Amino acid sequence: MANQVQAIKQEPTFQQERIELAAAFRWAARMDLHEAVANHFSLAVNEDGTQFLMNPNQMHFSRIRASDLLLIDANDAATMDKPGAPDPTAWGLHGSMHRYCRHARCVMHAHPEYGTVLASLADSRLPPIDQNSAIFFNRYVIDESYGGLALTDEGERCAELLANPDHKTMIMGNHGVMVIGETVADTFNRLFYFERAARNYIQALQTGQPLRVLSDEVAEKTARQLDAYPSQGDRHLSEILAILDREEPDFRD
């Protein structure tokens, strides 16, 4: 019995990972990157990436606390039969990503306004018209084969599209966007800047004026410089945590 109690006490709680992911949900709500009680973020917590934290079924991003996050095993076929099971589309999409695309430690899927408008265009490419859009030059993939809700088959297909580690953003045609990364900080920063870039592009199109598109050479140079820019994602998340600690400290609960 003593050994059993000791084992229970030593079971990891992933508290820091929970806090950072909860902060991402809260800030996504503030930035209007969420959609009602839909959309999901997940974070792998074991070495091979198959165990992950994710938001519970149909809980508003603005209310999520660290303790609310589900701990899910992508290889547990009985997941959807258990009490407190995740949303079926979350299991289909994020379960598949963490099962088959293990370099995707953090996965954020959302339907933000401008990213979804871009995904709704017949030509969903994001040209490098400014520094923000240059971040994604040659670093995204477009899903041209939307097949309905992101249940298991759709999830597996999406995981295949992000098998190339150089592609960390997917413009999900007729659907929304998905970004992946190593950490919550890295991934949320990418989601934030993708929505900024999509907004700039859509608003530029609305002027009806010719676009000032960067050359491939300059766009790639800029993307590489931004790839190597020191600790921007970490600092972004650090500031978000500081603001939430002052204004919404219950996110850590």
Contiguous low-pLDDT stretches (5 residues minimum) are 4-9
CATH architecture: 3-Layer(aba) Sandwich
* Count of folded domains: 1
Largest sheet: 7 strands, mixed
Q: Rounded to an integer, what's the Rg over CA atoms?
A: 19 Å
Helix-and-strand structural type? alpha+beta
- The number of helical runs is 9
Quick check: average pLDDT?
93
CATH topology assignment: L-fuculose-1-phosphate Aldolase
Described by the principal axes of the CA atoms, the overall outline is globular
- Classified in CATH, the superfamily is Class II aldolase/adducin N-terminal domain
Secondary-structure element series:
HHEEEHEHHEHEEHHH
Biggest sheet strand line-up: 3-2-1-4-7-6-5
CATH class: Alpha Beta
What's the total number of strands? 7
Assess the beta-strand content as a share of residues. Answer: 5-15%
Helix content: 40-55%
The end-to-end distance, rounded to whole angstroms, is: 30 Å
